[in-house]
Each structure stands twice: as C-alpha cells, then as structure tokens.
C-alpha cells in the first residue's frame, strides 16, 4: 500500500518547499506519544535514508521509514481549514482509536 495526498495537501507542501528553497519532499512518520500511543511526525526531507520508502503523488515525494510504514500504509494526507484552524489531516485506515484531542492514535 502507498501513501497518497489530496490536491490541496500537495499544493501546500509544494508552496512550503518553494518558500524553503530546498528539500526532496515531505517526511512522514510516527513516534510514541500522547494518551493513545502514537503521534504523527511531519518534516521536510533533505536526504534519503538507506531503507526509506518513497511514494510520489501529484509531484510531491512522501518519504517514510520502514518502521513507520507499518502504521501508515494506505494513509491519505489532506490539508483542511475548519473555522480558525487549518492544518494537515491524516486519513489513516489503520487507526483503531484516537484520543479526544486528536493528537495521538493507536492501531
């Protein structure tokens, strides 16, 4: 399974990378955190690790380490605006439960 992104998310990442002036793409991962166990990590990627998986969607490279891919396979990255809040949203089919604040999840 792959990692995909909506057109809106791809546009935002493209703008962020252009403003930054460098970068291969976006690194997506997970870390142990929060009340439900795991949290998403997003950062710019300037280089690839030896075991990284690269998914390209809408001209944007999404880079995922093998450990995180176990929890992220099939995820769609979106960018939403809800009232005064805006940010990336993870449509992850592997999530079994999430905390009330939306900051962490478990599979």
Query: Any idea of the CATH topology?
Result: Hypothetical Protein Aq_1857, Chain: A
Structural class: alpha/beta
Strand content: 35-45%
The low-confidence runs, each spanning 5 or more residues with pLDDT under 50, are none
* CA distance, first residue to last residue: 16 Å
Q: What count of structural domains?
A: 1
**Biggest sheet: strands side by side, in what order?**
3-2-5-4
Report Rg.
Answer: 14 Å
Question: What is the CATH architecture annotation?
Answer: Sandwich
- CATH level 4 superfamily: HesB-like domain
Write down the CATH class. Mainly Beta
Order of helices and strands: EHEEEEHEEEE
> How many extended strands?
9
What does this protein look like?
The protein is α/β, with parallel strands linked by helices. Helix content is 20%, strand content 45%. It contains two helices and nine strands. A hairpin with a 2-residue loop joins strand 4 and strand 5 (60-64). The mean pLDDT is 87.
What's the topology here?
Blueprint: E1 4-5, H1 7-20, E2 25-33, E3 37-45, E4 53-57, E5 60-64, H2 66-72, E6 76-82, E7 85-91, E8 97-98, E9 105-106
Parallel strand pairs: 1-6, 2-5
Antiparallel strand pairs: 2-3, 4-5, 6-7, 8-9
Kindly summarize this structure in a few lines.
The protein is of the alpha/beta class.
Key structural traits:
about 110 residues, alpha/beta, Hypothetical Protein Aq_1857, Chain: A, four-stranded mixed sheet, three-stranded mixed sheet, 2 helices, 9 strands, about 45% strand, globular
């Amino acid at each position: 399974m792959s990692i995909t992104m909506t057109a809106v998310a791809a546009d935002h990442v493209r703008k962020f990378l252009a403003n930054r002036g460098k970068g291969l793409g976006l690194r997506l991962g997970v870390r142990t955190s929060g009340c439900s166990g795991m949290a998403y990590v997003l950062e710019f990627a300037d280089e690839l690790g030896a075991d990284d998986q690269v998914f390209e969607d809408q001209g944007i490279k999404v880079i995922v380490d093998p450990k995180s891919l176990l929890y992220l396979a099939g995820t769609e990255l979106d960018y939403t605006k809800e009232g005064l809040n805006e940010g990336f949203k993870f449509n992850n089919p592997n999530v079994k439960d999430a905390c009330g604040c939306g900051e962490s999840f478990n599979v």
